């Protein structure tokens, strides 16, 4: 275990006429391997902007985003991977191999089965050339995480919760060290949300590092560390331990923040 992601002085500004607005304002953050981090905060506080920057989807206005060199066992440092030094192509290649991303609207391709959808990232991953190994990876993941009976189905034949589970498994099929989720349950009802969060919790117990942006207490309570974002800054942090009433602690924390 060690630091997987190190964010220093991260800033994102947008031009507003002649003025500038700061969506992300000098954010510092470290994420350890195996963590389950939640980003909460009011609408427009900067949660998605932070996630887009650390996924390399968007480009920062300042600061650094370093990932530990995944091929090396050395701790994060000068030889780590710094997004601000990469061009778009390098970022895409790095993201494809190392970062899983899940959005609110899961993006399964409707004309492909769950199996075929999950095959896509594996085919794009240059490290995985062996057909049998790709197939076995998908079968194993579906068996382990409750999608075995749905593997040959099309997305339209699945419930919203099952579709999102399939989208999550697709995102981690090539074993990215980190999984980033933006409102992964935003379009689901409470029962479906539980189904999706059960999967994320299980993946995290298996060592998957996860960061989730959410508005939902039902989601946030499953994380281990909640960061409260306000005006583009991290303005509070709560470590959620196994003991005691996690939901009550979280609600008290959020109330103090004016939630
Ligand atoms: N492409 C853009 N151009 C200009 N301003 C933007 C752009 N994207 C985001 N912003 C602004 O940056 C700020 C942060 O937006 P962001 O989407 O990160 O917030 P959020 O906390 O994720 O909100 P929500 O919970 O509503 O999704 C907001 O003021 C938003 O209007």
Automatic annotation (TrEMBL):
Pfam family, one: ABC_tran
InterPro entries tied to this protein: AAA+_ATPase (IPR003593), ABC_transporter-like_ATP-bd (IPR003439), ABC_transporter-like_CS (IPR017871), MacB-like_ATP-bd (IPR017911), P-loop_NTPase (IPR027417)
GO molecular function: ATP binding; ATP hydrolysis activity
SMART domains: AAA
Annotated Gene3D superfamilies: P-loop containing nucleotide triphosphate hydrolases (3.40.50.300)
Residue intervals of the ABC transporter domain: 5-256
Alphabetical keyword list: ATP-binding, Nucleotide-binding, Transport
Record-stated family: Belongs to the ABC transporter superfamily.
Name of the molecule in the record: ABC transporter ATP-binding protein
Source organism of this protein record: Schaedlerella arabinosiphila
């Amino acid at each position: 275990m060690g630091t997987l992601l190190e964010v220093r002085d991260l800033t994102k500004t947008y031009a507003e006429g002649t003025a500038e607005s700061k969506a992300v304002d000098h954010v510092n953050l470290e994420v350890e391997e195996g963590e389950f981090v939640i980003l909460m905060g009011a609408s427009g506080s900067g949660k998605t902007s932070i996630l887009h920057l650390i996924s390399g989807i968007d480009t920062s206005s300042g600061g650094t985003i370093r990932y530990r060199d995944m091929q090396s066992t050395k701790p994060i440092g000068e030889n780590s991977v710094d997004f601000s030094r990469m061009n778009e192509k390098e970022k895409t290649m790095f993201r494809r191999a190392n970062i899983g991303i899940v959005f609110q609207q899961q993006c399964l391709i409707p004309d492909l089965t769950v199996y075929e959808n999950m095959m896509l990232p594996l085919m794009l991953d240059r490290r995985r050339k062996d057909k049998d190994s790709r197939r076995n990876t998908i079968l194993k993941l579906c068996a382990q995480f409750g999608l075995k009976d749905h593997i040959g189905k099309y997305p339209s034949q699945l419930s919203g919760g099952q579709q999102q589970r399939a989208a999550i498994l697709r995102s981690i099929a090539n074993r990215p060290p980190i999984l980033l989720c933006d409102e992964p349950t935003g379009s689901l009802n409470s029962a479906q949300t539980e189904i999706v969060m059960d999967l994320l919790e299980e993946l995290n117990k298996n060592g998957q590092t996860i960061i989730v942006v959410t508005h939902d207490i039902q989601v946030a309570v499953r994380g281990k560390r909640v960061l409260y974002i306000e005006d583009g800054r991290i303005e509070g942090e709560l470590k959620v331990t196994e003991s005691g009433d996690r939901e009550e602690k979280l609600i008290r924390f959020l109330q103090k923040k004016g939630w």
